[in-house]
Amino acid sequence: MKFLLPGILLFTIQLHAQSFQRVHDKAIVIDTHNDILMKSVDLGYSIDQDLRGKTLSDLTRWKKGGLDVQVFSVYCDGDAKNPYAYANREMDSLDAVVARNPDKIIKVANYAALIKAVKQHKMAAMFGVEGGHMIENDLNKLEALYHRGARYLTLTHNISPDWATSAADETNPNPVIGNGFNKDGKKGLTSFGIQVVKKMNELGMIVDVSHVGEQTFWDIIKTTTKPIMASHSSVYSLVHHRRNLKDEQIKAIAKNGGVIQINFNPGFIDSSYDKKEAAFIARHKDEYEGLQKNGMPEFYALDSIYHEYKEEANSMRPPLSLVIDHIDYVAKLVGVDYVGIGSDFDGINNTPQELNDVTDYPLITKALLERGYSKKDIDKILGGNFLRVLKANEKNK
């Protein structure tokens, strides 16, 4: 028997590997937040090229990771000049890739087109505009972005637009950029902000509450007539970060019929990470500040330092299990129907262990199976819950 045991054990391991991969392959896998278009425009990368070693994402690797639908973040800083024009440049960069690769990726406008693309084994692409400043206080520009394929708008990024306060500004006002208040001198939505939410409901565009302040969140809940989403947020009760959602917010999203897409950012899932990162930056302060003095934006300067000192960066990475802890928390608090994944790949400088890039999505499925989630529940988490919210926003447009 002692000679048979290793063979039996190996067979069990192989069977388990096949089973999680089979569950993953059969699910519609959706990631609601990836920032690769920022790098496409800023660094000249094209996602139909081999970008290994440069980015966390490209078209070939998405296919390998079993991703069926990517909602591409359209992003620039809240104090950027001409943000609407920049948004369109990012959209142009994806449209060019779609035009070159019609057999691999297709831009979709609604639930029916998405399902058709999945059945054709093509990756379905949508846009999510990250920051209300990109509509430049103009509802016509909001509508134009919708018609270009934007299916959610994150009402704020860190720097508040005139009409809604961000989590960053509500909790730590910047006296130079944002004083913590909207144009009316209050926290939350202005009358124009309420118009934005109502216009989004009318269009069938999902209201995204990632990055928004608490008062803005509750104003959205009072205003919206459609299910909302948090495209890339995690759980405040596990990690006290301003970007994470408190229990009452999670409950309100569930009551609204929305969904919380868990972010992989190490600082959002690991309560010890920010201190580690601060110490890492302090060790390389001269180099980090030197890059910025030479004109490199803060995000790319930090990215450069992380790449330069890979061993240190790897030693800081939290385990994949913490991502699953955040999914678990939401599922146990309000039910498995209200949680999904919004990785923030290529918008984060480091990743959890095992989640090295977009090829590693199947390891999430494996971890969920090991936690006892059923195939039906995993289908919901990997994409089904977002599909429900998308479909609900399309009704009675």
Assess the beta-strand content as a share of residues: 5-15%
Work out the helix count: 18
Shape: globular
Oligomer: single chain
Helix percentage range: 40-55%
The H/E string reads HEHHEHEHEHEHHEHEHEHHHHHHEHH
Tell me the CATH architecture of the largest domain: Alpha-Beta Barrel
Number of strands: 9
Classified by CATH, the class of the largest domain is Alpha Beta
CATH fourth-tier homologous superfamily of the largest domain: Metal-dependent hydrolases
Largest sheet: 6 strands, parallel
CATH fold topology of the largest domain: TIM Barrel
Which ranges are low-confidence, i.e. pLDDT below 50, for 5 or more consecutive residues?
A: 1-5, 10-15
Using only C-alpha atoms, the radius of gyration works out to 21 Å
Arithmetic mean pLDDT = 93
Domain tally: 2
Overview of this structure, please?
With 397 residues, the protein is an alpha/beta fold. The protein folds into two domains: 26-269 and 319-394, TIM Barrel, CATH 3.20.20.140; 271-317, no CATH class. It has 18 helices and nine strands. Strands 1, 2, 3, 4, 5 and 6 form a six-stranded parallel β-sheet that branches. Strands 7-8-9 form a three-stranded parallel β-sheet. α1 (5-26) crosses α17 (361-370). The longest helix is centred in the first third of the chain and has 22 residues, at 5-26. The protein is globular and about 50 Å long.
